[in-house]
Write a structure and sequence with these properties.
Elements lengths: L1 E3 L1 H4 L8 H11 L22 E2 L5 H14 L4 E5 L11 H18 L4 E6 L12 H15 L6 E5 L6 H4 L9 H19 L1
Parallel strand pairs: 1-2, 1-3, 3-4, 4-5
Helix pairs in contact: 2-7, 3-4, 4-5
Length: about 200
């Protein structure tokens, strides 16, 4: 289950959808998996289900995840949420708390669930998203704290090597084709060993 905001949802004809590329990469690697969720992917020949909502933040996702996982059980949960706040809100603590809640929810509903937490892509839309570097440090610390061999939580570094000047559309937030390729590659590198 891919959980996130518009970057995970995709923008149809507006900006690239990394999950389409990810599905191709997993298939090419010989990985058999099924994406689950309540929302189909626009522009995909198959539903490629997800739980991503444009304009919504991590706190919102935490509030709906239990119901979504009960309706669509998942063995692997991919969390990629950190946008849709403003630097003035000092949002890092709240975003981290929402991720902690989502990990707790996933484990309660499926004690064998594997959770991946992504460090979110940097943005050129400043100062609004100037908190993202601090958020990514805090998410790495959260993963280190929550990871257990019997209930793994893995970090996916989407930030390193992602250049908002080259990898986003004109809004400097959402990925273009090159940015979507980078995101998909990082997710595939993280997921493939767990799915084989």
């Amino acid at each position: 289950m891919a959980v996130g905001d518009s970057i995970t949802q995709g923008g149809g004809k507006t900006f690239a959808t990394y999950r389409l590329l990810l599905a191709e990469k997993l298939k090419a690697a010989g990985v058999r998996c099924e994406f689950v969720g309540s929302r189909p992917t626009e522009g995909s020949a198959t539903p490629l289900w997800h739980e991503a909502y444009g304009g919504k933040n991590a706190e919102y996702l935490a509030s709906i995840l239990e119901a979504k996982l009960k309706a669509h059980p998942a063995d692997i949960v991919m969390l990629q949420a950190g946008h849709n706040h403003f630097i003035e809100e000092k949002p890092v603590a709240g975003i981290v708390a929402a991720h902690r809640e989502m990990v707790t929810t996933a484990r309660r509903l499926n004690p064998k669930a594997i959770v991946f937490i992504a460090q979110v892509i940097p943005s050129g839309k400043l100062p609004k998203y100037a908190y993202i570097p601090d958020l990514n440090v805090a998410l790495a610390a959260l993963v280190k704290e929550l990871h257990r061999p019997e209930q793994p939580v893995y970090l996916v570094d989407l930030a390193t090597g992602f250049d908002p000047a080259q990898d986003t559309i004109a809004d400097r937030v959402h990925p273009n084709a090159a940015g979507a390729e980078k995101i998909a590659r990082r997710w595939a590198e993280a997921l493939t060993p767990c799915l084989r």
